[in-house]
Amino acid sequence: MAPGGRALACDDRVADLDATVGDFWAWALGDPRTNRTRGLFAEWIVGRVLSLPPESMREEWADWDLDWDDLRVEVKTTGIVQAWEPRPGGRSPQKFTGLRGRRYDDASGQRSLLPEFKAHICVFCAQTTEDKRTYDLTDPEQWEFWVMTVDEVAQLNQGSIRLGRLNSLGVDGCKGWADLGEVLSRVRGRLSQSDSVISPSSPPRPSSRGGSAQE
């Protein structure tokens, strides 16, 4: 949120219109099949599992998605159902992209020349429903999660990873989010000094989320 800005609330009235901020949110994010809405929802779910304050807000264009104490968490999302019709011949394989990214430096206003890992833990989230008629972002039975340390991701030496690859590797995960906190804690316990991918010269990011989208 910009300095001096005020956080929006769902029931805020929009001046001179018979509308609320909630109406705007429904218009902008009302289609749960879009990659953006699905990605934002997955980030929010992971944040709630990590017990981040409910009043905290997402920081757009941040180098990572969530702060978990002193750890940085990246959330990647994929799904089968899309807002558009699949191409003839079937759908593309589910995969997670952008495992590396160019880091932004506040001092210089420039991004790093080479892509790099910017978080300590990666959470891969898949909305697994194939039927548009039963598709429901809020149903935990329609989600699966896998969690890896950055070292484990780096050892794959890939810029993206397919869902089938995660399953074949036996990556720690769960169906639904009831057990996601336990999985995250197990993976956190595997972190070592070599997982500290953040340069010591890079200060922690100020977070408007109080504790700490897309596909």
SSE layout and pairing:
Elements: H1 21-29, H2 35-49, E1 66-68, E2 71-79, E3 95-96, E4 104-105, E5 110-111, E6 121-127, E7 143-149, H3 150-154, E8 161-162, H4 163-169, E9 173-175, H5 180-190
Parallel strand pairs: 2-6
Antiparallel strand pairs: 1-2, 3-8, 4-5, 6-7, 7-9
Summarize the structure.
22% of the residues lie in helices and 17% in strands.
Summary keywords:
single chain; two-stranded antiparallel sheet; globular; five-stranded mixed sheet; 5 helices; 22% helix; 17% strand; alpha+beta; 215 residues
- Give the helix level as a range of percent: 10-25%
The biggest sheet, with number of strands, parallel, antiparallel or mixed sense and barrel status, is: 5 strands, mixed
Q: Could you spell the SSE succession in H and E letters?
A: HHEEEEEEEHEHEH
Our count of helices gives 5
What does this structure look like?
The chain has helices spanning 21-29, 35-49, 150-154, 163-169, 180-190; strands at residues 66-68, 71-79, 95-96, 104-105, 110-111, 121-127, 143-149, 161-162, 173-175. It is an alpha+beta fold. It has one domain (32-81, 94-195). The strands form three sheets. A five-stranded mixed β-sheet has the order 1-2-6-7-9. It has a two-stranded antiparallel sheet with strand order 3-8. Mean pLDDT is 84; it is low at 197-212.
